[in-house]
Amino acid sequence: MRIRPVAAPGVGDHRVEVAGQPPSYEVAEGAGPERGDLVAMARAVARRQHRRVAVLALPVPGAAGRAMRGGGQLPGPGARILGPSFGDWLATTTAAAAGGC
After folding, report:
1. pTM for the whole thing?
2. Most C-beta atoms within 10 A of its C-beta, which of 14, 53, 66, 83?
3. Strands 36-37 and 2-3, how do they pair?
4. Three-class SS state of 37
5. Is the Cβ–Cβ distance between 41 and 86 less than 8 Å?
6. Residue 14 and residue 56: Cα distance in Å, rounded?
7. Runs of H (alpha helix) within the chain
């Protein structure tokens, strides 16, 4: 699954900003600055935590699986880009807290 992850503080800041604006029917979509593969990111977090776990890529069947494989989890063109990148977040996250992205 291809995604554009955002660290929780970035999401919180974005939601606070949106909540302070007048009501709108538009979706306030946010996304991280880089695309990444969810399985590769999970493996990177496990390595950062010094955990020896098997992270397996399991295909999701049906329409939902096709949408995920086709980039259905990626944001639209109007998404606000929020940081930090996954790599920057991972580099600054302690091994004990690395599960919180």
Report:
1. 0.77
2. 14
3. antiparallel
4. strand
5. yes
6. 32
7. 8-19, 38-48, 62-69, 86-92
Residue 47 in tokens: 């390595």
* Joined tokens for residue 20: 């302070």
Query: Chain centroid to CA 12: how far?
Result: 14
**For residues 26-35, b (16+ Cβ closer than 10 Å) or e, as one string?**
eeeebbbbee
Six-digit token string for 85: 């990148």
E strand residue ranges, 1-101 = 2-3, 30-31, 36-37, 80-81
Do the strands 36-37 and 80-81 form a parallel or antiparallel pair, or are they unpaired?
A: unpaired
Residue-level pLDDT, tens digit, the chain, 101 residues: 899 999 888 889 999 999 999 988 888 899 999 999 999 999 999 999 899 999 998 889 999 999 988 899 999 998 999 989 999 999 988 654 545 54
